[in-house]
Amino acid sequence: TELACRYAGRDVYYLNGGDDTEPLVSSCEPDDFQGRNRRERGALFFASLRMLFGRPVHRRAVVGSVGHDHSLMFESPEGLRAIFGE
Q1: Whole-angstrom Cα distance, residue 53 to residue 83?
Q2: Dihedral sign computed on CA atoms, order 53, 59, 62, 68
Q3: What does 48-65 look like in DSSP terms, one character per residue?
Q4: Are 37 and 23 in contact (CB under 8 A)?
Q5: In angstroms, how far is CA 5 from the centroid of its own chain?
């Protein structure tokens, strides 16, 4: 669809915490349907984009030694690259 193509063309950078591995529990789906934790869910979602569009789209970085903490994510070298560029 046009919306999906526009999304694929956007400059999007996904950040996942290397230590964001706490098991997730949800009442609306099986616990591991999208991945066992946020880091795994991020990896699976990013891989699904490539499968959907048949080519790499967007960028992703795993921020080592960071869990589910937005401050540490944005202050990391990977976060700073995502915000300000290389």
Answers
A1: 25
A2: negative
A3: HHHHHHTS--SEEEEETT
A4: yes
A5: 19
Residue 14, Cβ neighbours under 10 Å: how many? 15
Q: Is 41 helix (H, G, I), strand (E, B) or coil?
A: helix
* β-bridge partners, 30: none
Given the structure tokens 């915000």, which residue do they identify? Answer: 83
Each residue's pLDDT, cut to its tens digit, for the chain (86 residues) gives 899 999 999 999 999 999 999 988 776 666 677 888 999 999 999 999 999 999 999 999 999 999 999 999 999 999 999 999 97
Q: Which residue has the tokens 């046009």?
A: 2
Rg of the chain on CA atoms, in Å: 14
- The residue type found at 33 is F
> Can you give the pLDDT at residue 29?
64
Q: For the whole model, what pTM was predicted?
A: 0.87
3 in Cβ contact with 50 (< 8 Å):
no
